[in-house]
Amino acid sequence: MSEPRPQRVRVTGPPRYSTGPRNRIGDVHEQTPLGDVFLRSLLKEQLTLAIRVLVLIGLTLGLLPLVFHLWPDLAEIELLGLPVAWVGLGAVVYPFLLLVGWRYVRSVERNERDFADLVAGSEDRES
Amino acid sequence: MSGDAVPGLIAVLAVTVATLAIGTWGLRFSRTTSDFFVASRSVNPRLNASAICGEYLSAASFLGVAGLLLVGGAQMLWYPVGWTAGYLVLLVLVAAPLRRSGAYTLPDFAEARLGSRVVRSACSLLVVGVGWLYLLPQFQGAGLTLESAIGAPRWVGPLIVGSVVLVNVMSGGMRSITFVQAFQYWLKLTALLVPAMVLLVVWVGDGRPAGSGAGDSWSVPVAGGGAIGLYGTYSLMIALFLGTMGLPHVVVRFYTNPDGRAARRTTLVVLALLGLFYLWPPVFAALGRVYGGDLVAKGNADVLVLELPRLMVDGVGGELLTGLVTAGAFAAFLSTASGLAIAVSGVLTQDVTSRFVGERGPAGTPGSIAPAFRLAAVLAVSVPVLVALFATNVGVAQSVGLAFAVAASTFCPLLMLGIWWRGLTDAGALAGLAAGGIGAGGAAVLNVVGVQGSGWVGALILQPAAWSVPVAFATMVLVSLATASRAPLHARRFLVRLHTPEVLEVGG
C-alpha cells in the first residue's frame, strides 16, 4: 500500500535539474548565512582588485608630482629630444592606462566566472 | 575681419545646421519614453564609447587644454591625464555595478539605494549645480570662439549656442540618437588631428625652430611655488580622478549599455579614444611656443587652437584649417552642452517643474511631460547663459575643473560607499553631500564671482578637492556609523544585484 506513492511523484513531476543552482543563488538573494558568505567573498575579491588598480595608479602617476617637486632637475632629462615629463604625461600615460584597464577587466571577469561556478555548482549543463 | 571670417562662418553654420537637422530627424526615433530606453540598451560598446567621448570632450578639452599647456607648461598635462584616468577609476569602482543598479540618473540611484526622497532631492540639487558649473565654460568658450573665428562680439556665442541647444533639447532630438554624439567625437578628433599633422609638417619644413617663452618651468609637471604648488597639483588630480564618475551626463550614458559587462568594455574603449584625442593638444601647445608668442602676451591662450593654423599657414590652406578647427570647437560646445542640458532638464523635470506644470496627454508618452520638460530646458540653459554673459571669465578648463571638484566631493563618496559599503544610511549620505557640496561648491562660487585669496587661502579656494573630498567621505562614514539603525533593510539585496554577474540573474 505504501509502494505506489513514490512512483506517482516520479511520473508527474518534470525533472528539475535547476534546483541546485537556484537554491544557492536563492541563498545569496535571501540573505541566509551561506548567501552572506558568498556575497562577502565576491565583494571582497572585487574590491581587492579595484584597490590594487588604484594603488598601482597612486604609486605611478600619484608619485610623479612629488618626485618632480623634490628633484626638479629631473625635468631637464630628454627622451627623443623632448622633456621627459612631456613624453610621459603627454603620450606614454594613455597606453599605460588602457593596459591597466584591460588587465583589470580580464581579472574581474575571471572573478565573476569563478563566482558563477561556485554558486551554480559544478553541473555540466551550465557549461 | 571680412575675409578672415568666411571659413569660420561657414564652419559654424554647417555644424549648426547639421546638428539641428539630425536632431529633428532623430525625433522620429523617440516617439515614446520607453522607446528611448529600449533602443539605447542595445547600443554596442564601441558606438557607445564614441558617444560618451563625443559628449565628454568639451570646449575645455578642445580649446582649453592647449591654451593651458602653452601658458602653464607640463603641470597642466594633469588636466588631460586626469580626465582620462577618471575613467579608469570609474571602471574599477562603479561602471558595472552602476549599470546593474538600473538607475538612469544619480538621483534615481540615490533613491533606489537609500530609499529616501530627501537624499534624492539633495542629489537633484547637486546635479543641477554641477551641470550649471560645467555649462558655464561651454558658453563662455563659445563666445571666445566666435570672437576669434568671425570677429563677433563676445556675447553672441553664448546666445547662439544656448539657442541651438535649447531648440535641440526641446525637440527631444539629441535624446535618442547616440550616433550623433558618436559622430561628434570623430569630428572633433579629425578637427584636431588633421591640422596638427599639417602644422607639424610646416614646422619641419621651417627647419624645426625651437620654442621660446615660459622658461624652465615649462617642462616640470608640478606647479611652482613650493608646497602650495604641490598642494594645487595634487588637489587637481584628486578632483579629476574622482570627479568623472559623478558627472551627470556621463552617468546617463552608462545606462545605455546592455549589461554590466558591456559597461566595462565601453569604458575600456573610452580610455582608448580619449588617449587618442589627448595626444594632440600638446602638439598645438608646443607649436604655439614657437609661433604663437603673441597670444600669451595678450592673455588670449584659450584661442591658440583656433589661431595657430592662420599664424603658420598662409592663404587658402590656412583658411581651410581654421574652418576645420572652428567646426570642431563648435561641435564640442554643442555636444557637451546638449548632453548636460538634457541631464539637467531631466532632473529638473522629475523633481521641480512637473510639480508646477500639470501633465497633459496620455501618460507614458513624451506629450505627458512635454510642457514640464520644456520649462525645465529653458531653465537649464538660460541660467548659465546669463551667468556667462555677466560673470568674469574664469578660464574654460579652470571652470570645468571646479565642476569636477564638486562632483568628486559629493557624488563620488555617495557612489563609492553606496556600491561597496552596506552601512551607508540616508542620514550619512545627506550629511556627506552637504559637507562636500557646501565645501567644494562654496569654493566654486567664490571663484566664479571673482573672489581671490592669496597664499594658502587662495590655493584652498582655487583647488578645494584635496580637503573637500576627505571631509565628505569622513562625514558620510561617521554619520552613517552613528545612525546605523537607519541603514535600509534592502541594502544587502541591492548590493547583491549590483555585484552579481549577469549570467546568474534569475527572473526577479
Automatic annotation (TrEMBL), chain A:
Residue stretches spanning the membrane: 49-71, 83-105
Region annotation (Disordered) ranges: 1-25
Keywords assigned: Membrane, Transmembrane, Transmembrane helix
Keyword field contains Membrane: yes
Domain of life, per lineage: Bacteria
Name this protein carries in UniProt: DUF485 domain-containing protein
Organism in which the protein naturally occurs: Nocardioides immobilis
TrEMBL record, chain B:
Record field: transmembrane: 6-27, 47-71, 77-98, 118-135, 155-173, 185-205, 225-247, 268-287, 320-348, 369-390, 402-421, 428-449, 461-484
InterPro entries reported for this sequence: Na/Glc_symporter_sf, Na/solute_symporter, Sodium:Solute_Symporter
Membrane-related topology note: Multi-pass membrane protein
GO BP term, example: plasma membrane acetate transport
PROSITE patterns: NA_SOLUT_SYMP_3
GO molecular function, one term: symporter activity
Signal peptide extent: none
One cellular component term from this protein's GO annotations in UniProt: plasma membrane
Family listed: Belongs to the sodium:solute symporter (SSF) (TC 2.A.21) family.
Protein name: Cation acetate symporter
Native organism: Nocardioides immobilis
